[in-house]
Every structure is written in C-alpha cells, then in structure tokens.
Amino acid sequence: MHKHGLSLQLACQIDWPEVMARPDTRRDYGEVREVGFAIIGRRLYCVVFTQRGGAMHIISLRKANSREVKAYVES
C-alpha cells in the first residue's frame, strides 16, 4: 500500500501503450518522471513513473480527481 490507499500491484493492469503521459516538470527530481493517465477497469487513474535501465518504475498511483477526468475526456 502507499499513501493513496492503493496497492502498486494495480499498476500491473495498466495498458501502457494507451497511457496519456507528459513529463513531470514541477521540480528537479534528478531523473525524468512522467505523469500519465490510464484506465484500469472502469476508472481513470493517475500514475507517476520513470524508466530506469529499461524497466518501468511506478512512483505513485492514485484515482484521478474530477478535474483530471474532465480533462482526459475532453482530450
């Protein structure tokens, strides 16, 4: 479990080719991080991730908020 009450195991269900992602430029993390939106089941989730050595590392996974859902639907 992490702070959003979701198991990061849920990220195993992400269909990565369908993820809408952009670089996370809010601060310098010392690595390139991306913020993406993915549908798992019938719900939209926000996932923060980075790639290290060819492997995907999930940093955070949470349910998308209503503003994010609206932006996702309108895109």
UniProtKB/TrEMBL annotation:
Gene3D superfamilies found in the cross-reference section: Ribonuclease toxin, BrnT, of type II toxin-antitoxin system (3.10.450.530)
InterPro entries in the record: BrnT_sf, BrnT_toxin
UniProt superkingdom: Bacteria
Pfam family, one: BrnT_toxin
The protein's name in its UniProt record: Phage protein
Gene source species: Bordetella ansorpii
Lineage: Bacteria, Pseudomonadati, Pseudomonadota, Betaproteobacteria, Burkholderiales
